[in-house]
Please model this.
Amino acid sequence: MRHVIALDVGGTGMKAALVGLDGALLYEARRATGRERGPDAVVQSILGFAEDLRAHGHKHFGAAAEAAGVAVPGVVAAEQGIAVHAANLGWRDVPMRELLSRRLGGIPVALGHDVRTGGLAEGRIGAGRGTGRFLFVSLGTGIAGAIGIDDGIEPGAHGCAGEIGHIVVRPGGPVCGCGGRGCLEALASAAAVGRAWAAASGDPAADAADCAKAVEACDEAATGVWQAAVAALADGLVTAHTVLDPHTLIIGGGLAEAGDTLFTPLRAAVAERVRFQKLPEIVPAALGDAAGCLGAGLLARDLLAAAAARLPCPVPQKPPDPARVP
Model:
């Protein structure tokens, strides 16, 4: 059975699948990245996992994978196949596409940014399906986004389009991981909410999920922390909406798991800030933590579709003239 490899690399774990050319999930697996052993060990873990997936496909489906798609965190030069920078993996300028292709027998490999690859899946088969234009925002340890246009994701000139987390919403505010101050990520990510609630509650182990539970229990301090994060998030979303004019804002990541505790005040805050713009629909992501892996499968299948489109059409051959056949 013809299939591709889909691999989503996270900070501590990897999710993978073998996907049929019709999109059917044929096999799923997970494995640790081995980050505690250092950056080189992570690369070797990825290569070994991909090789094992290829072997599984050959054994159980009668053929090796024809292409692979890989989603990785950080800054990605997808066209060059290089993971330019992934701080949580300790990488810089890793030629991941070349390494994987060589390990997998020379098959084509597509490389994508993890959130933008997840956004691709949300756009085609998830919450953005049929919307035409959407902005996918992931609220996790950091905040990143993907600009959806029809069935694709706009990468930008340098592969960094959609980095909504580094819009400055509070000039002079808290320091962000990027080195700036007052970035959306430093105020409204799950990590930022967790830090603020740990400080407000006096519990150093408290996180964003704990804050959401305290909000639901009508805790005044938690409500203050939550409202500040929602206000910052609304400011960032309205800025992005003003520039991009998407039909739909899709919110995913760990913070979105708070459900209506997040979405009800967020929709109200965005509505308060919209002036001449058309109010966007704000919806939760549909694919959860499977989005990156599903998107990686789409990247791989797109490679095969593009290669097939480049093949020359066979020239029809005229049958021989019976009168001229000796």
